[in-house]
Amino acid sequence: ADSLRTLAAGVGLRIGTAVNMDELNVDTTYTGIVAGQFNTVTAENVMKWDAIEPSQGTHNYGPADQLVAFAKAHGQLVRGHTLLWHNQIPSWLTTGVTNGTIDNAALRDILHRHITDEVSHFRGKIWQWDVANEFFTDSNPSTINPNDFWISHLGAGVIADAFRWAHAADPHALLFYNDYNIAGEDGSNAKSDAVYAWVRQLRSQGVPIDGIGNQGHLDTQYGFPTLLTQDLQRYANLGLKVAITEADVRTFIETTDANQTPTDNLATFAQPYEYSQMLKACLAVRACISFTVWGAGDAGSWVPGTFMGEGYADIYDVNLKPKAAYTALQQDL
Ligand code: XIL
């Protein structure tokens, strides 16, 4: 059967994966999958601030440049991830804020410079930037989190500024707001409603935001977000692009099991179904331009390290053999 990227090209969609730069060009099976199955890639970690500027003023673009070169060689477009987020920011920055050597005015300047430097470095080479990541609370009603590191120091307006700064540095990149549970993914839909109202306001103010990325980290124990298509379409109706940016479907495993075998048989049916439903939602919305999975194989997945007792989240198993979820995506394309 054809590769995912060949099938996706046939329906005008880009299909992608997050790429782990410790594996790329090291593990040949992994490298072959990234090159052969996907026509867009996202840096899983190497474009985050702590990787890019490990000490103040010293930049390490090497691994990210390698990914950009790999993508070019393989006809892939790059999603840049991510410029403004509360996680994976450098310790020199958080330490400086804590000990008072970086006041709020200085923090704002440092952020402006970071966004300008990084976006300029990759100017012309990034298809979509996740400018801002994970700012809304999971509560009902949902709001921009006042306790977020950036918001507590610089105020909620800093998010719009980040979009302006990124746009100034690369006017052709598509600029995205990225978050989880922002399309049909909880009972109340409160978070989706809040992001929708916020982005509508930004658009009306002329802030250069082009798209909404719905991460798509699902869990078989919570079932499928049935309003996904509807919520993606609602963003699209504002003139925005949408994307599924970090799809995976985790389930319970024995923590000691290196094979990540699901403890519940239902997972073997629920997982391909949920991947399939996510892809179908993207295919149903014309403005949905890419569908990205958050890692190819279970051995490299972030899930076991983050969610106690869960794993088996990816479309390839720990030996990089395609799972039923892979076949489900292939059949939908
Ligand atoms: C994760 C990576 O997969 C891990 O390797 C890293 O240790 C932590 O970050 N939402 C995001 C991603 O937007 O950047 C996160 O990636 C997963 C959750």
UniProtKB/TrEMBL annotation:
Class of this enzyme: hydrolase
SUPFAM superfamilies xrefs: (Trans)glycosidases
Pfam annotation, one family: Glyco_hydro_10
Keyword terms, alphabetized: Carbohydrate metabolism, Glycosidase, Hydrolase, Polysaccharide degradation, Signal, Xylan degradation
Catalysed reactions listed for this entry: Endohydrolysis of (1->4)-beta-D-xylosidic linkages in xylans
Protein name per Swiss-Prot or TrEMBL: Beta-xylanase
Domain GH10: 1-332
Presence of the UniProt keyword Signal in the record: yes
Protein family (similarity comment): Belongs to the glycosyl hydrolase 10 (cellulase F) family.
Coiled coil (residue ranges): none
Plastid found in the keyword field: no
Species this chain originates from: Rugosimonospora acidiphila
Entry EC no(s): 3.2.1.8
